[in-house]
Amino acid sequence: MSMMILAMLVPLGGAVLIALLNRAPAVRDGVTLVTAVAMFGVVIQLVPEVLSGGRPATDPWQVLPGLELRLVLEPLGMLFALIASSLWIVNSLYSIGYMRGNEEERQTPFYVFFAIALSATLGIAFAGNLFTLFLFYEILTLVTYPLVTHKRDEAAIAAGRVYLLILVGGSLILFMAAVAWVFMATGNLAFVPGGTVAGVLSPLETGLLLALFVFGIGKAAVMPMHRWLPAAMVAPTPVSALLHAVAVVKAGVFSIVKIVVYVIGIENLSSLGAGEWLAYVAGGTVILASIIALRQDDLKRRLAYSTISQLSYVVLAVSVLTPLSVVGAALHIAAHAFGKITLFFAAGAIYTAAHKTKVSQLDGIGRRMPWTMVAFAVGALSMIGVPPTFGFVSKWFIVSAAFADQHFFVLAVIVLSTLLNAAYFMPIVHAAFLKPAPHDPHPHGEAPWPMVVALTMTATATILLFLLPTLPLALARQLAGLP
Amino acid sequence: MTLQHLPALQVVVPLLAAPLCALLRRPTLAWAWATLVSWAALVIAALILTQVLTTGPISYWIGNWQPPWGIEYRIDTISAFMLVLVTGIGAVVMPYARVSLAAELPADRLPWYYTMYLLCLAGLLGMTVTGDAFNVFVFMEIASLSSYVLIAMGPSRRALMAAYQYLILGTIGATFYIIGVGFLYLMTGTLNIADLAERLPLVENQRPIIVGLAFIAVGLSLKFALFPLHFWLPGAYAYAPSAAAAFMAATATKVAVYLLLRFFFTVFGEAYPLPDMAIPVIWIGLSVAGMILASVMAIYQDDVKRMLALSSVAQIGYITLGIGLDSEVGLTGSVVHLFNHGITKGALFLLVGGIALTTGTVTIASLSGIARRMPLTMAGIVIAGMSLIGIPGTAGFVSKWYLILGAIEEGWWWLAAVIVASSLLAVVYMGRILEAAYLRPAPPGQEAREMPLSMLIPAWILVIGCVWFGLDTDLTADIAGRAAHALLGRAP
Q1: Which residue of B74, B87, B105, B218 pairs with B131 in a disulfide if CB–CB is 3.0 to 4.6 A?
Q2: Are residues A290 and A261 in the same domain?
């Protein structure tokens, strides 16, 4: 059996075990952790082959003529699978602390759907053609719906509606139309370096197809398809952290990068000049979302708008349409993942320990929760793109690519958004450490230790990946066809 | 020998079994007999399908009278495919029916139910196998009259009203059909379908022919509840016994659509291309109206069975849409959706019927928190619901994919958009069910329990079918493609 299928079966098997262990919470939580480690163990076995230029693939399973289910691993998928599976381990540790610390109900279905969601995420990462990608993309939306509505109150139900309608609506209408169009035009849904529609569609048609993909893939949260992401913040924080800062949203930008590289083709798009509008849409999203983030007092909502802004960085980087910019896009998928999960971990830790959700309540909290807030600061620096954090590396590549291509709009967006990022993150760090704490009738310390360990790990990784970005960089360069 | 009589046996076995069933006064005995006959019919249908697929269309002369004078049973790919659908649904529903009907009907009526069910089955199968336009009418009446009775047996008194409404509209439909056939007979002097197809091009005065076609099309449309001729359907399916609703929703309308395909393509296709009579325009218009408006109405229903019934009207719009596209891809979508929607809606009606067993009428409110009591039933509804919406990996996706390709092939992007927009409406109404069942708290004193295995297993067979036929389409899309090819008159 292919290692890819095995990697997807491990979390499914884990989900079954977790469901059976409903009455033994301690064992159940242990199984979650072991499953995550096992999945990462399988995924990492695939790395050497991909690095040496191999493209492991499974036998195609034909659903309809031309529609095949097939897994093919290429560098970007490898990178995405590594990010999702490594962070799931940390996130599982964190979830255990969070779910117990907050005495959440229905923990078993929570872990079950989480494991299934990770399996679907790997399906997206490994998808060998557009149909397979589309299939797992839909599955991921559906299996994360129960996680978004976990609280089952009116707010959660309303958020669930927004979540389903925007994501399923976008994908069923626009994404599916785009897939059908590619199929009608080329008879081929495979991912081919250089793109399959090159030379088939006119510039106008190519631009339209790109638009169908960019807006149809609502998980990338390019405005105006972004509303589901702030809505999804009603979910428990581990869901926001791993799914709505990493797996689900990255599945969106991952799909866009993959489609631009392997279906439309970078050279094709730049020679047709059909993708210029994308820079403006993405740049607009970066700036607008940052401005909205600035005005949010709810910490998780501020983080959500920051995510929307950072996701469009990836799209913005791709829109420069040079190999170097693709490297930047791929690295930013990784960089944002580690930074943002740290920030969400911190937000959840604050909620668990101090029951605070608002930015304005965080004065002086750094002294009570030093580990948490230092990690938060590291995550924030990575968002802004300050060394020594991983965020600097990806931003460096995007800036160099834009500079080499004389793309001044992109440069201006990056400069402006860096300032905005600083403007909405730094006051939090400042308040946490330098403002005096108000009198608090319920003194508290750090959150439960699994949460603190988890957020320390991701913060450390954010710095380590700045020092040693070898693996992500190698995969990103392979994707862009650079030596 | 016996093999060569399969087409006759397909109809004769359930037809003769029906009166015998009426003589069996013990409910369990009658049920066992009807189940046995249903399974036998499935075996016969499967044998016929393999035979048609390997050796081509079968022509069977009743009483060995040569057509066009005698009655000919003629089975080609699409009719064999329909036989498998109808008998397959019957065979799956019967094991379910025992417990479900025992709870819904008084014991002394049960043998009558099974008798009527067998008659209905025989009628539907007869409509499918016969190659004679008048014989179609006879079987249509057998199927219709028995289904009026099946609906009227429903547990609430409103079933009588629904059956009456269906009786009136169904009779008008059948009458229109026979008037149309009368026109054709007047002009051609034949009732044999294949013979009609040959003689129509020779008729000079076209007006009566076109009037005849109009009567047939409207009559059949009433039978399969084409929007806006659907008024009988929501009540009929909502108040019929659960087993009857599932059986009829999955088969009865489908057979009427099959007949329409026969007349549009086999009889008229050659001499009277559909576009010449503006049929695609009318058909696509009505289909789109049904897909959107019936779905919107479904959203506002509180009675879940009515919601599903209106959803059927919308889904029939998909099927007729493919007919209107008048292309091989579109028609493949239609034929495959006949099957896919049959199993999807069958599964949903069976599952909702299981909930009705404990809660009486099934409203959105009565579903609150029921997922914890009936996890397997609700999981089935989720999966079948995904097939209804057309999520990739389910049967519903396959049909929609073909219809979208058909629309794009014509360059009608707006139509592709309408197809998916209607799916989105399905997300909304299925979402209402799921929200109530999974996210709302259960009212105090709710005593719902998982339905017995004899009901759960048949329902889940169809649920698994919803996924199976979304991933493996050798049986469905492949045969549908061949059937569409043959209907459009190209050499197979």
Answers
A1: B74
A2: no
